[in-house]
Amino acid sequence: MNNQSTYTRLFWLINFTILVLKVLFASRPELDLFTEEAQYWLWSRNLDWQYYSKPPMVAVLNFLSTSLLGHTELAIRIIPAFLGFLSAGILFSFARKIHQSEEVGFWAGAIFLAIPITFLGFTFHTTDTSMSFFWILAWYAFYLAIDSHGRKMWVIAGLLTALGILSKSTMLLIFPAGFIYLFLTKSLKENFSNFLLFSFISLLGFIPGIIWNFQNDFYTVRHIATLGGASSGEAQPFDWGLLMARTSEYLGGQLAMVSVFLLPFFGMAFRKAWKTKDHVALFLVLPGVLTFTGFLGLSFTTWILVNWPGFAYSTFAVFLAPLMVELAGGWKKYRNISLIISLGIIALVLFPNYANWKSSGPIFSGEKALFKRMIGYEELGERVQHLLDSLGGDSPIIFSESYHTASEMAFYMSSHPQTLVVNMGSRKNQWDLWPGMDVQVGNPGRFIFVSRSKESPESVTKFSRLIHEETLPFYFGSDSIGQSKIQVWEHLLEYQPVQTDSF
After folding, report:
1. Is residue 232 scored above 50 in pLDDT?
2. 422: helix, coil or strand?
3. Do 135 and 63 share a domain, yes or no?
Protein backbone atom coordinates (compact mmCIF):
# COMPACT_ATOMS: atom_id res chain seq x y z
CA MET A 1 0.00 0.00 0.00
CA ASN A 2 1.52 3.34 -1.07
CA ASN A 3 2.19 6.32 1.14
CA GLN A 4 -0.40 8.50 -0.59
CA SER A 5 -3.30 6.15 0.24
CA THR A 6 -2.15 6.22 3.88
CA TYR A 7 -2.79 9.98 3.94
CA THR A 8 -6.30 9.40 2.58
CA ARG A 9 -7.11 6.82 5.25
CA LEU A 10 -5.65 9.01 7.99
CA PHE A 11 -7.73 12.01 6.89
CA TRP A 12 -11.00 10.05 6.87
CA LEU A 13 -10.12 8.50 10.26
CA ILE A 14 -9.66 11.96 11.79
CA ASN A 15 -12.76 13.31 10.05
CA PHE A 16 -14.92 10.39 11.19
CA THR A 17 -13.56 10.61 14.75
CA ILE A 18 -14.51 14.28 14.96
CA LEU A 19 -18.00 13.40 13.66
CA VAL A 20 -18.45 10.75 16.36
CA LEU A 21 -17.21 13.13 19.07
CA LYS A 22 -19.72 15.77 17.95
CA VAL A 23 -22.54 13.24 18.21
CA LEU A 24 -21.37 12.38 21.73
CA PHE A 25 -21.07 16.08 22.55
CA ALA A 26 -24.70 16.60 21.52
CA SER A 27 -25.66 13.96 24.09
CA ARG A 28 -23.92 15.57 27.09
CA PRO A 29 -26.76 15.88 29.64
CA GLU A 30 -25.36 18.93 31.43
CA LEU A 31 -25.15 21.05 28.25
CA ASP A 32 -28.30 22.51 26.74
CA LEU A 33 -28.90 24.11 23.37
CA PHE A 34 -27.20 27.42 22.74
CA THR A 35 -29.93 30.07 22.83
CA GLU A 36 -29.63 30.87 19.10
CA GLU A 37 -30.02 27.17 18.32
CA ALA A 38 -33.23 27.09 20.36
CA GLN A 39 -34.53 30.16 18.54
CA TYR A 40 -33.87 28.61 15.12
CA TRP A 41 -35.59 25.42 16.26
CA LEU A 42 -38.66 27.46 17.18
CA TRP A 43 -38.57 29.00 13.71
CA SER A 44 -38.88 25.46 12.34
CA ARG A 45 -42.18 25.18 14.23
CA ASN A 46 -43.33 28.31 12.38
CA LEU A 47 -42.09 27.74 8.82
CA ASP A 48 -41.95 30.84 6.65
CA TRP A 49 -40.17 32.18 3.55
CA GLN A 50 -37.99 34.45 5.67
CA TYR A 51 -37.57 35.47 9.28
CA TYR A 52 -36.83 38.71 11.05
CA SER A 53 -33.06 38.48 10.72
CA LYS A 54 -32.28 35.46 8.53
CA PRO A 55 -33.40 33.40 5.51
CA PRO A 56 -35.29 30.12 6.02
CA MET A 57 -32.66 27.39 5.46
CA VAL A 58 -31.80 26.88 9.15
CA ALA A 59 -35.49 26.42 9.97
CA VAL A 60 -36.04 24.02 7.06
CA LEU A 61 -33.08 21.84 8.08
CA ASN A 62 -34.28 21.78 11.69
CA PHE A 63 -37.78 20.85 10.50
CA LEU A 64 -36.41 17.93 8.50
CA SER A 65 -34.09 16.61 11.22
CA THR A 66 -36.62 16.90 14.05
CA SER A 67 -39.27 15.24 11.89
CA LEU A 68 -36.96 12.23 11.69
CA LEU A 69 -35.29 12.26 15.13
CA GLY A 70 -37.76 14.12 17.33
CA HIS A 71 -37.27 17.37 19.21
CA THR A 72 -33.92 16.52 20.75
CA GLU A 73 -30.52 18.16 21.01
CA LEU A 74 -29.08 15.43 18.80
CA ALA A 75 -31.63 16.21 16.07
CA ILE A 76 -30.45 19.83 16.07
CA ARG A 77 -26.71 19.20 16.23
CA ILE A 78 -26.48 16.23 13.88
CA ILE A 79 -26.86 18.76 11.04
CA PRO A 80 -23.67 20.78 11.70
CA ALA A 81 -21.78 17.59 12.57
CA PHE A 82 -22.72 15.98 9.26
CA LEU A 83 -22.21 19.12 7.16
CA GLY A 84 -18.81 19.65 8.80
CA PHE A 85 -17.87 16.07 7.92
CA LEU A 86 -18.89 16.67 4.29
CA SER A 87 -17.15 20.07 4.15
CA ALA A 88 -13.83 18.60 5.27
CA GLY A 89 -14.21 15.88 2.63
CA ILE A 90 -14.93 18.46 -0.08
CA LEU A 91 -11.84 20.49 0.81
CA PHE A 92 -9.77 17.29 0.85
CA SER A 93 -11.04 16.55 -2.66
CA PHE A 94 -10.48 20.16 -3.78
CA ALA A 95 -6.83 20.16 -2.68
CA ARG A 96 -6.21 16.68 -4.07
CA LYS A 97 -7.60 17.69 -7.47
CA ILE A 98 -5.55 20.88 -7.70
CA HIS A 99 -2.24 19.37 -6.63
CA GLN A 100 -2.76 15.73 -7.62
CA SER A 101 -1.60 14.71 -4.16
CA GLU A 102 -3.32 12.77 -1.37
CA GLU A 103 -0.86 14.30 1.10
CA VAL A 104 -1.85 17.86 0.17
CA GLY A 105 -5.49 16.78 0.43
CA PHE A 106 -4.83 15.42 3.92
CA TRP A 107 -3.35 18.69 5.12
CA ALA A 108 -6.18 20.74 3.63
CA GLY A 109 -8.80 18.64 5.40
CA ALA A 110 -6.85 18.42 8.65
CA ILE A 111 -6.22 22.18 8.85
CA PHE A 112 -9.90 22.84 8.20
CA LEU A 113 -10.91 20.50 11.03
CA ALA A 114 -8.32 22.00 13.40
CA ILE A 115 -9.21 25.70 13.15
CA PRO A 116 -11.58 27.08 15.82
CA ILE A 117 -14.05 28.67 13.36
CA THR A 118 -14.78 25.18 11.99
CA PHE A 119 -15.48 23.93 15.51
CA LEU A 120 -17.97 26.75 16.12
CA GLY A 121 -19.70 26.68 12.75
CA PHE A 122 -20.02 22.92 12.49
CA THR A 123 -20.77 22.00 16.11
CA PHE A 124 -23.60 24.41 16.92
CA HIS A 125 -26.45 24.73 14.42
CA THR A 126 -26.65 28.37 13.39
CA THR A 127 -27.21 30.09 10.05
CA ASP A 128 -23.43 30.02 9.54
CA THR A 129 -23.54 26.22 9.35
CA SER A 130 -25.40 25.73 6.09
CA MET A 131 -24.09 28.96 4.54
CA SER A 132 -20.47 27.89 5.15
CA PHE A 133 -21.22 24.48 3.63
CA PHE A 134 -22.79 25.95 0.50
CA TRP A 135 -19.97 28.53 0.25
CA ILE A 136 -17.39 25.72 0.11
CA LEU A 137 -19.40 23.83 -2.51
CA ALA A 138 -20.16 26.93 -4.58
CA TRP A 139 -16.57 28.21 -4.59
CA TYR A 140 -15.30 24.77 -5.61
CA ALA A 141 -17.91 24.67 -8.38
CA PHE A 142 -16.84 28.17 -9.44
CA TYR A 143 -13.27 26.90 -9.82
CA LEU A 144 -14.45 23.90 -11.85
CA ALA A 145 -16.60 26.19 -14.02
CA ILE A 146 -13.61 28.37 -14.94
CA ASP A 147 -11.48 25.27 -15.53
CA SER A 148 -14.06 23.47 -17.72
CA HIS A 149 -15.15 26.44 -19.88
CA GLY A 150 -18.61 24.88 -20.01
CA ARG A 151 -21.95 26.24 -18.84
CA LYS A 152 -23.00 23.21 -16.78
CA MET A 153 -20.69 24.00 -13.87
CA TRP A 154 -21.64 27.68 -13.96
CA VAL A 155 -25.29 26.66 -13.53
CA ILE A 156 -24.37 24.30 -10.68
CA ALA A 157 -22.31 27.04 -9.01
CA GLY A 158 -25.28 29.40 -9.32
CA LEU A 159 -27.70 26.91 -7.78
CA LEU A 160 -25.34 26.24 -4.87
CA THR A 161 -24.92 29.97 -4.32
CA ALA A 162 -28.70 30.41 -4.29
CA LEU A 163 -28.91 27.77 -1.54
CA GLY A 164 -26.21 29.67 0.35
CA ILE A 165 -28.22 32.89 0.02
CA LEU A 166 -31.23 31.03 1.40
CA SER A 167 -29.00 30.22 4.39
CA LYS A 168 -27.52 33.67 5.07
CA SER A 169 -27.36 36.86 3.03
CA THR A 170 -23.60 37.19 3.51
CA MET A 171 -23.30 34.59 0.75
CA LEU A 172 -23.63 37.46 -1.74
CA LEU A 173 -19.93 38.24 -1.12
CA ILE A 174 -19.19 35.48 -3.61
CA PHE A 175 -20.04 37.94 -6.39
CA PRO A 176 -17.29 40.49 -5.75
CA ALA A 177 -14.82 37.69 -4.96
CA GLY A 178 -15.56 35.94 -8.24
CA PHE A 179 -15.60 39.14 -10.30
CA ILE A 180 -12.30 40.40 -8.85
CA TYR A 181 -10.65 37.03 -9.45
CA LEU A 182 -11.71 36.98 -13.12
CA PHE A 183 -10.57 40.58 -13.52
CA LEU A 184 -7.16 40.06 -11.89
CA THR A 185 -6.46 36.93 -13.95
CA LYS A 186 -7.55 38.67 -17.17
CA SER A 187 -10.22 36.03 -17.78
CA LEU A 188 -13.29 38.22 -17.27
CA LYS A 189 -13.97 38.81 -20.94
CA GLU A 190 -14.06 35.13 -21.93
CA ASN A 191 -16.19 34.23 -18.88
CA PHE A 192 -18.39 37.30 -18.72
CA SER A 193 -21.57 35.78 -20.20
CA ASN A 194 -21.22 32.71 -17.98
CA PHE A 195 -20.59 34.92 -14.94
CA LEU A 196 -23.83 36.79 -15.72
CA LEU A 197 -25.66 33.47 -15.97
CA PHE A 198 -24.14 32.37 -12.66
CA SER A 199 -25.19 35.66 -11.03
CA PHE A 200 -28.74 35.50 -12.36
CA ILE A 201 -29.27 31.95 -11.09
CA SER A 202 -27.66 32.80 -7.75
CA LEU A 203 -29.89 35.82 -7.17
CA LEU A 204 -32.98 33.62 -7.38
CA GLY A 205 -32.13 32.77 -3.78
CA PHE A 206 -33.16 36.30 -2.77
CA ILE A 207 -36.69 36.09 -4.21
CA PRO A 208 -38.44 34.59 -1.13
CA GLY A 209 -36.74 37.15 1.15
CA ILE A 210 -37.59 40.08 -1.12
CA ILE A 211 -41.26 39.12 -1.24
CA TRP A 212 -41.34 38.55 2.53
CA ASN A 213 -39.68 41.91 3.24
CA PHE A 214 -42.21 43.76 1.08
CA GLN A 215 -44.92 42.10 3.15
CA ASN A 216 -43.24 42.80 6.52
CA ASP A 217 -42.09 46.41 6.42
CA PHE A 218 -38.52 45.48 5.32
CA TYR A 219 -37.65 44.17 8.77
CA THR A 220 -34.65 42.14 7.59
CA VAL A 221 -33.29 45.02 5.50
CA ARG A 222 -33.54 47.41 8.43
CA HIS A 223 -31.98 44.87 10.81
CA ILE A 224 -28.99 44.30 8.50
CA ALA A 225 -28.57 48.05 8.03
CA THR A 226 -28.44 48.47 11.82
CA LEU A 227 -25.82 45.72 12.13
CA GLY A 228 -23.81 47.55 9.48
CA GLY A 229 -23.70 50.71 11.59
CA ALA A 230 -26.67 52.59 10.13
CA SER A 231 -28.69 54.48 12.70
CA SER A 232 -31.71 56.73 12.62
CA GLY A 233 -30.55 58.65 15.68
CA GLU A 234 -28.36 61.71 15.94
CA ALA A 235 -24.77 61.51 14.76
CA GLN A 236 -22.36 60.57 17.53
CA PRO A 237 -19.02 62.34 18.02
CA PHE A 238 -15.99 60.47 16.74
CA ASP A 239 -14.39 58.35 19.46
CA TRP A 240 -10.85 57.08 18.85
CA GLY A 241 -10.98 54.89 21.93
CA LEU A 242 -14.16 53.16 20.80
CA LEU A 243 -12.77 52.68 17.30
CA MET A 244 -9.58 51.10 18.68
CA ALA A 245 -11.58 48.87 21.02
CA ARG A 246 -13.82 47.59 18.22
CA THR A 247 -10.97 47.08 15.77
CA SER A 248 -8.62 45.39 18.24
CA GLU A 249 -11.39 43.06 19.38
CA TYR A 250 -12.10 42.20 15.75
CA LEU A 251 -8.46 41.52 14.90
CA GLY A 252 -7.90 39.46 18.04
CA GLY A 253 -11.03 37.46 17.39
CA GLN A 254 -10.03 36.67 13.82
CA LEU A 255 -6.57 35.53 14.87
CA ALA A 256 -8.21 33.19 17.34
CA MET A 257 -10.65 31.88 14.71
CA VAL A 258 -7.91 30.81 12.28
CA SER A 259 -5.58 29.64 15.11
CA VAL A 260 -2.47 31.48 16.22
CA PHE A 261 -0.51 28.28 15.53
CA LEU A 262 -0.96 28.88 11.79
CA LEU A 263 0.33 32.46 11.69
CA PRO A 264 3.92 31.59 10.63
CA PHE A 265 2.55 29.42 7.83
CA PHE A 266 0.32 32.20 6.56
CA GLY A 267 3.37 34.45 6.32
CA MET A 268 5.33 31.84 4.36
CA ALA A 269 2.42 30.98 2.04
CA PHE A 270 1.57 34.62 1.27
CA ARG A 271 5.21 35.38 0.50
CA LYS A 272 5.45 32.40 -1.84
CA ALA A 273 2.17 33.28 -3.61
CA TRP A 274 3.33 36.88 -4.11
CA LYS A 275 6.58 35.72 -5.71
CA THR A 276 5.03 33.11 -8.00
CA LYS A 277 1.86 35.06 -8.93
CA ASP A 278 0.06 31.73 -8.72
CA HIS A 279 -3.54 32.07 -9.96
CA VAL A 280 -4.69 29.02 -7.98
CA ALA A 281 -3.28 30.46 -4.76
CA LEU A 282 -5.05 33.73 -5.54
CA PHE A 283 -8.33 31.88 -6.05
CA LEU A 284 -7.98 30.12 -2.71
CA VAL A 285 -6.98 33.12 -0.64
CA LEU A 286 -9.04 35.89 -2.25
CA PRO A 287 -12.43 35.23 -0.55
CA GLY A 288 -10.91 35.14 2.92
CA VAL A 289 -8.78 38.25 2.39
CA LEU A 290 -11.64 40.27 0.89
CA THR A 291 -14.08 39.24 3.62
CA PHE A 292 -11.55 39.87 6.40
CA THR A 293 -10.76 43.32 4.97
CA GLY A 294 -14.41 44.22 4.46
CA PHE A 295 -15.38 43.40 8.02
CA LEU A 296 -12.25 45.15 9.27
CA GLY A 297 -13.52 48.34 7.62
CA LEU A 298 -16.96 47.75 9.10
CA SER A 299 -15.40 47.42 12.55
CA PHE A 300 -14.55 51.13 12.36
CA THR A 301 -18.28 51.92 12.70
CA THR A 302 -19.82 48.98 14.58
CA TRP A 303 -19.02 45.90 16.66
CA ILE A 304 -18.34 42.77 14.60
CA LEU A 305 -19.15 39.34 15.98
CA VAL A 306 -16.21 36.97 15.78
CA ASN A 307 -17.98 34.44 13.54
CA TRP A 308 -19.17 36.81 10.80
CA PRO A 309 -16.21 36.55 8.40
CA GLY A 310 -15.41 32.93 9.23
CA PHE A 311 -17.36 31.29 6.40
CA ALA A 312 -14.83 32.59 3.82
CA TYR A 313 -11.79 31.21 5.66
CA SER A 314 -12.39 27.60 4.58
CA THR A 315 -10.19 27.74 1.47
CA PHE A 316 -7.31 29.07 3.55
CA ALA A 317 -6.87 25.40 4.48
CA VAL A 318 -6.38 24.45 0.82
CA PHE A 319 -4.11 27.48 0.34
CA LEU A 320 -1.80 26.42 3.20
CA ALA A 321 -1.80 22.68 2.44
CA PRO A 322 0.95 22.51 -0.24
CA LEU A 323 3.28 24.55 1.98
CA MET A 324 2.77 22.02 4.78
CA VAL A 325 4.03 19.24 2.51
CA GLU A 326 7.18 21.21 1.60
CA LEU A 327 8.25 21.95 5.19
CA ALA A 328 11.35 20.31 6.62
CA GLY A 329 13.38 20.26 9.81
CA GLY A 330 12.12 22.32 12.73
CA TRP A 331 9.19 23.76 10.81
CA LYS A 332 7.97 20.26 9.96
CA LYS A 333 8.12 19.30 13.63
CA TYR A 334 6.27 22.52 14.58
CA ARG A 335 3.64 21.72 11.93
CA ASN A 336 2.98 18.28 13.39
CA ILE A 337 2.88 19.48 16.99
CA SER A 338 0.54 22.35 16.06
CA LEU A 339 -1.91 20.01 14.34
CA ILE A 340 -1.86 17.54 17.22
CA ILE A 341 -2.44 20.28 19.81
CA SER A 342 -5.21 21.96 17.78
CA LEU A 343 -7.10 18.74 17.12
CA GLY A 344 -6.43 17.60 20.69
CA ILE A 345 -8.03 20.72 22.17
CA ILE A 346 -11.11 20.25 19.99
CA ALA A 347 -11.34 16.57 20.95
CA LEU A 348 -10.94 17.51 24.62
CA VAL A 349 -13.84 19.97 24.42
CA LEU A 350 -16.06 17.52 22.54
CA PHE A 351 -15.32 14.43 24.62
CA PRO A 352 -18.07 13.59 27.16
CA ASN A 353 -17.55 14.02 30.87
CA TYR A 354 -17.58 10.29 31.65
CA ALA A 355 -16.89 9.50 35.31
CA ASN A 356 -16.72 13.27 35.97
CA TRP A 357 -13.13 13.45 34.72
CA LYS A 358 -13.73 17.06 33.56
CA SER A 359 -15.42 18.18 36.78
CA SER A 360 -12.47 19.92 38.40
CA GLY A 361 -9.30 21.79 37.61
CA PRO A 362 -8.49 23.93 34.56
CA ILE A 363 -10.65 21.85 32.18
CA PHE A 364 -13.68 22.47 34.39
CA SER A 365 -12.93 26.20 34.59
CA GLY A 366 -12.48 26.44 30.83
CA GLU A 367 -15.73 24.61 30.09
CA LYS A 368 -17.58 26.69 32.64
CA ALA A 369 -16.52 29.89 30.85
CA LEU A 370 -17.19 28.43 27.40
CA PHE A 371 -20.58 26.86 28.10
CA LYS A 372 -22.14 29.16 30.69
CA ARG A 373 -24.84 30.23 28.21
CA MET A 374 -25.86 26.60 27.72
CA ILE A 375 -26.57 25.68 31.32
CA GLY A 376 -29.77 25.18 33.31
CA TYR A 377 -32.45 25.57 30.67
CA GLU A 378 -33.54 21.92 30.67
CA GLU A 379 -34.12 21.95 34.44
CA LEU A 380 -35.92 25.28 34.13
CA GLY A 381 -38.15 23.94 31.37
CA GLU A 382 -38.99 20.85 33.42
CA ARG A 383 -39.91 23.01 36.43
CA VAL A 384 -42.12 25.33 34.39
CA GLN A 385 -43.76 22.31 32.74
CA HIS A 386 -44.51 20.88 36.21
CA LEU A 387 -46.12 24.17 37.25
CA LEU A 388 -48.12 24.27 34.01
CA ASP A 389 -49.39 20.71 34.54
CA SER A 390 -50.25 21.33 38.19
CA LEU A 391 -52.35 24.40 37.38
CA GLY A 392 -54.84 22.41 35.32
CA GLY A 393 -57.55 23.98 33.19
CA ASP A 394 -56.64 25.84 30.03
CA SER A 395 -52.93 25.87 29.21
CA PRO A 396 -51.24 28.93 30.70
CA ILE A 397 -49.31 31.34 28.49
CA ILE A 398 -45.52 31.06 28.91
CA PHE A 399 -43.67 34.33 28.40
CA SER A 400 -40.38 36.10 29.04
CA GLU A 401 -38.76 39.46 28.39
CA SER A 402 -35.97 37.64 26.51
CA TYR A 403 -36.46 35.78 23.24
CA HIS A 404 -33.48 33.64 24.26
CA THR A 405 -35.27 32.36 27.36
CA ALA A 406 -38.58 32.10 25.53
CA SER A 407 -36.94 29.91 22.87
CA GLU A 408 -35.32 27.63 25.44
CA MET A 409 -38.63 27.19 27.27
CA ALA A 410 -40.41 26.26 24.05
CA PHE A 411 -37.79 23.57 23.41
CA TYR A 412 -37.29 22.15 26.91
CA MET A 413 -40.92 22.08 28.04
CA SER A 414 -42.33 18.71 27.01
CA SER A 415 -45.50 20.39 25.67
CA HIS A 416 -43.36 22.65 23.39
CA PRO A 417 -45.66 25.69 23.75
CA GLN A 418 -45.52 28.72 21.46
CA THR A 419 -43.97 31.09 23.99
CA LEU A 420 -44.42 34.86 23.98
CA VAL A 421 -42.05 37.77 24.56
CA VAL A 422 -42.87 41.08 26.25
CA ASN A 423 -40.81 44.09 25.24
CA MET A 424 -39.17 45.65 28.29
CA GLY A 425 -36.66 47.66 26.26
CA SER A 426 -35.04 45.20 23.85
CA ARG A 427 -34.60 45.64 20.11
CA LYS A 428 -37.15 44.19 17.73
CA ASN A 429 -37.03 40.46 17.06
CA GLN A 430 -39.01 37.63 15.45
CA TRP A 431 -41.67 37.78 18.16
CA ASP A 432 -42.70 41.22 16.94
CA LEU A 433 -43.96 39.48 13.78
CA TRP A 434 -45.90 36.72 15.53
CA PRO A 435 -49.17 37.12 17.50
CA GLY A 436 -48.01 38.52 20.80
CA MET A 437 -48.99 39.53 24.29
CA ASP A 438 -51.21 42.32 23.00
CA VAL A 439 -53.80 39.80 21.75
CA GLN A 440 -53.89 38.24 25.24
CA VAL A 441 -55.13 41.40 26.99
CA GLY A 442 -58.37 40.48 28.77
CA ASN A 443 -57.48 36.80 28.96
CA PRO A 444 -58.58 35.70 32.47
CA GLY A 445 -56.33 32.63 32.44
CA ARG A 446 -52.87 31.97 33.92
CA PHE A 447 -49.57 33.36 32.64
CA ILE A 448 -46.13 32.04 33.64
CA PHE A 449 -43.28 34.56 33.51
CA VAL A 450 -39.75 33.14 33.20
CA SER A 451 -36.61 35.26 33.31
CA ARG A 452 -32.90 35.12 34.07
CA SER A 453 -32.50 38.88 34.44
CA LYS A 454 -35.81 40.47 35.51
CA GLU A 455 -37.63 40.20 38.81
CA SER A 456 -41.07 40.89 37.34
CA PRO A 457 -42.87 41.92 34.12
CA GLU A 458 -44.86 44.57 36.01
CA SER A 459 -43.21 47.54 34.26
CA VAL A 460 -45.07 46.63 31.04
CA THR A 461 -47.95 44.42 32.21
CA LYS A 462 -50.77 44.58 34.70
CA PHE A 463 -52.42 41.41 36.02
CA SER A 464 -55.24 40.96 38.48
CA ARG A 465 -53.05 38.99 40.90
CA LEU A 466 -49.81 37.08 41.46
CA ILE A 467 -50.51 33.46 42.36
CA HIS A 468 -47.02 32.03 42.86
CA GLU A 469 -43.36 32.94 42.52
CA GLU A 470 -40.05 31.21 43.07
CA THR A 471 -36.40 31.31 42.08
CA LEU A 472 -34.59 28.35 40.59
CA PRO A 473 -30.77 28.32 40.77
CA PHE A 474 -28.75 26.64 38.05
CA TYR A 475 -25.29 25.13 38.31
CA PHE A 476 -22.33 23.96 36.27
CA GLY A 477 -21.14 21.00 38.27
CA SER A 478 -21.32 22.20 41.86
CA ASP A 479 -20.67 25.85 40.96
CA SER A 480 -23.61 28.25 40.98
CA ILE A 481 -24.02 30.10 37.66
CA GLY A 482 -27.12 32.14 38.46
CA GLN A 483 -30.83 31.86 39.11
CA SER A 484 -34.08 32.15 37.21
CA LYS A 485 -37.27 33.86 38.33
CA ILE A 486 -40.60 32.09 37.81
CA GLN A 487 -43.93 33.84 38.48
CA VAL A 488 -47.49 32.66 37.90
CA TRP A 489 -49.94 35.49 37.18
CA GLU A 490 -53.67 35.55 36.52
CA HIS A 491 -55.86 37.64 34.20
CA LEU A 492 -53.90 40.04 31.98
CA LEU A 493 -55.50 43.48 32.30
CA GLU A 494 -53.00 45.67 30.41
CA TYR A 495 -49.90 45.38 28.27
CA GLN A 496 -47.88 48.52 27.52
CA PRO A 497 -44.65 47.44 25.78
CA VAL A 498 -41.62 49.69 25.54
CA GLN A 499 -41.85 51.26 22.09
CA THR A 500 -38.57 50.98 20.23
CA ASP A 501 -37.37 51.59 16.68
CA SER A 502 -34.17 49.66 17.35
CA PHE A 503 -33.49 46.83 14.92
Report:
1. no
2. coil
3. yes
